[in-house]
Amino acid sequence: MAINYKLVVDRDRYPTVRNICDGGLPESYDTWIYENEQSSRHSIGIGDVTKWVELDLNEFRAYCQRTRYKGQTALDNFAFEKGNALERDG
Q1: 84, 39 Cβ separation under 8 angstroms
Q2: Do the Cβ atoms of 25 and 33 come closer than 8 Å?
Q3: CB-hemisphere CA count at 13 Å for 7?
Q4: Which of 58, 9, 66 is nearest to 32 (CA)?
Q5: What angle do CA 48, 54, 57 make, to 5 degrees?
Q6: For each of the chain's 90 residues, which pLDDT tens digit applies?
Q7: What is the DSSP letter of 25?
Q8: What is the number of alpha carbons within 13 Å of residue 40 lying toward its C-beta?
Q9: Which residues have CB under 8 Å from 56's CB, separation 6+?
């Protein structure tokens, strides 16, 4: 069993997140949500667990500047690192 971390991003913040990611995400929040739900369903179907992580825009912006990650890769890697840190630090 693997743990997949996903970021909680609400509709109002999505344009800001998309801008921070330097594009690379769907223009539509609904499309992005659909793609994330499909990914989560697949993970659950193979026995993985999805855990949701709160998004801090300032942390995320700094992370993207530091790592130069863009698009969904930035979101996924940030969620993974933040989720692991929360698990580790309790």
Answers
A1: no
A2: no
A3: 24
A4: 9
A5: 130
A6: 788 898 999 999 999 999 998 878 999 999 999 988 887 777 777 888 888 899 999 999 999 999 999 999 999 999 999 998 887 886
A7: S
A8: 13
A9: none
State how far the Cα of 80 lies from the Cα of 7, in Å rounded to an integer: 9
The kind and range of the H/E element at 15 are helix 14-20
User: Among 13, 88, 18, which residue's Cα sits nearest to residue 54?
Assistant: 13
First-to-last C-alpha distance (Å) of the chain: 20
pTM for this prediction: 0.85
